[in-house]
TrEMBL record:
The keyword Signal applies. It comes from Spirosoma validum. It comes from the Bacteria. PROSITE patterns: PROKAR_LIPOPROTEIN. This is Collagen-like protein. Residues 27-49 are annotated as: Disordered. Residues 1-23 form the signal peptide. Residues 32-49 have a biased composition (Low complexity). The keyword Chloroplast does not apply.
Amino acid sequence: MKLLRNHTLLLISTLLLGLTACKGPQGDPGPKGDTGATGQTGAAGQTGATGATGTANVIYSDWINADWSLYDRPQLKQMKIIVPAINSTSIAKDAVLMYCKQFGTSSVYPLPSFGRWGNVWYSFEIANFTFNGLIVEVKSTDGHVLDEYETTALRGNRFRYVIIPGSIRAGRKAAVDYSNYEEVKKAYNLPD
């Protein structure tokens, strides 16, 4: 009898185990529940500082002291300024401008010009064949010997170049008077 009871228990255990291991076909999913409430909106972040207006890829120098080391004679002087952005492909389409400051005035003069002196001619040329840059020249137009007020950095003679790429020059800034330094400075946001 004990044996029969053990077999019966074994048979019942096996049947129960078999029934729990078998699964029938899965039923359809129930209806979708309601969406939960939306959480509170977080606080807005602080507004960042306004950035400086760009210069639209305009290339410009600081004010460069006169240094007549390329050619220095009593009635004619030249200095060179290395400008890597100047090359044979850029000069055909870009506007290359040069300005000068001189002794005893706050005015800025475009080159070429007499500046503040009626008998001294200031000019520049692009020198991309010998080096990438500019040659600035000052010469006496009446034969007098150039003096320190007309030429030296000690007396405030400084030069600055501004290169405006052709695509920008032909665009919205086309109406800028390039001979007016203040207008160029404002139009292209140049620091002084």
